[in-house]
């Protein structure tokens, strides 16, 4: 039972950073997956693959994994460097590329 600790990416449809400040401890997907003959849905014998534990800080997630003897790997988030520009810069005459078609 191996776990990974990561910070989820923000929603791509929004520009904010909502719901991406917490840390998630997620177990590796494993176990036997089969199709239920009655309903046709997938079922699994591994309950841990369905768990997703959320923590406020990275230290809390790591200490939880160490306290419960869970082997884990921390995946650091990549930070995006945002370039703040004004709306008027879209219409500058010295642009490298034209702003129209």
Short précis:
This protein is mostly beta strands. The protein has one helix at 58-67; strands at residues 3-6, 23-27, 33-35, 42-44, 52-55, 72-75. The chain has a domain at 3-10 and 21-77: atu1810 like domain (Double Stranded RNA Binding Domain).
| Fraction of helical residues | under 10%
Helix-strand category: mainly beta
User: What is the gyration radius calculated from CA atoms?
Assistant: 22 Å
Can you tell me the CATH superfamily of one domain? atu1810 like domain
**Order of neighbouring strands in the sheet with most strands:** 5-2-1-6
Low-confidence parts lasting 5 or more residues at pLDDT below 50? none
CATH architecture of one domain: 2-Layer Sandwich
Oligomer: single chain
**End-to-end Cα distance:** 54 Å
CATH topology of one domain: Double Stranded RNA Binding Domain
DSSP summary: helix tally: 1
What share of the residues does DSSP label as strand, in percent?
Answer: 15-25%
Mean pLDDT across all amino acids? 84
What is the tally of beta strands? 6
What global shape is seen? elongated
CATH class placement of one domain: Alpha Beta
Major sheet description: 4 strands, mixed
